[in-house]
């Protein structure tokens, strides 16, 4: 996930970021990684070795669905889309993340 000098993500954070990216609409894997990178102001880089297992896990869990399509480069690509279950899951995960990040901020401020 993180290269030397880049921040590493806490376990479970990647799923939250993927679901958030997919709330914008269906995306292929590379576009999911690009979206996360751009939305983080180029701070977070999602490597293929982390991204595709996470997408597979989310698909097995029913949080996302996948279908084959053609990318903007006219190549065959698997497109992922958030499901109703995924929308419920991201709502819970965002609440948990807010509580966790607030707690960490409080600890660091003391």
Briefly characterize the structure:
55% of the residues lie in helices and 15% in strands. It has 110 residues and is α+β, with helices and mostly antiparallel strands.
Model description:
The protein is of the alpha+beta class and 110 residues long. It has a single domain, classed as Winged helix-like DNA-binding domain superfamily/Winged helix DNA-binding domain (Arc Repressor Mutant, subunit A), CATH 1.10.10.10. 55% of the residues lie in helices and 15% in strands. Strands 1-3-2 form a three-stranded antiparallel β-sheet. Helix 1 crosses helix 2. The chain contains four helices and three strands.
Give the rounded overall mean pLDDT: 91
Q: Into which percent range does the helicity of residues fall?
A: 55-70%
**CATH architectural designation:** Orthogonal Bundle
Q: How many beta strands in the DSSP annotation?
A: 3
CATH superfamily: Winged helix-like DNA-binding domain superfamily/Winged helix DNA-binding domain
Count of separate structural domains? 1
Instruction: Write the element-wise H/E pattern from the N-terminal end onward.
Output: HEHHEEH
The largest beta-sheet arranges its strands as 1-3-2
What is the molecular shape? globular
Q: CATH topology, anyone?
A: Arc Repressor Mutant, subunit A
Q: Class in CATH? A: Mainly Alpha
Q: What is the first-to-last residue Cα distance? A: 30 Å
Main sheet, how many strands, which sense, barrel? Answer: 3 strands, antiparallel
Are there runs of 5+ residues with pLDDT below 50, and where?
none
**Alpha-carbon Rg, integer:** 15 Å
Q: Number of helical segments? A: 4
């Amino acid at each position: 996930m993180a290269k030397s000098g880049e921040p590493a993500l806490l376990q479970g954070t990647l799923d939250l970021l993927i679901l958030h990216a997919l709330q914008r609409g269906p995306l292929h894997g590379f576009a999911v990684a690009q979206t996360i990178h751009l939305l983080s102001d180029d701070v977070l880089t999602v490597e293929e070795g982390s991204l595709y297992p996470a997408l597979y896990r989310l698909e097995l869990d029913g949080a996302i669905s996948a279908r084959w399509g053609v990318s903007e480069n006219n190549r065959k690509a698997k497109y992922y889309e958030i499901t109703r279950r995924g929308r419920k899951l991201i709502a819970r995960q965002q609440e948990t993340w807010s509580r966790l990040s607030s707690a960490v901020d409080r600890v660091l401020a003391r």
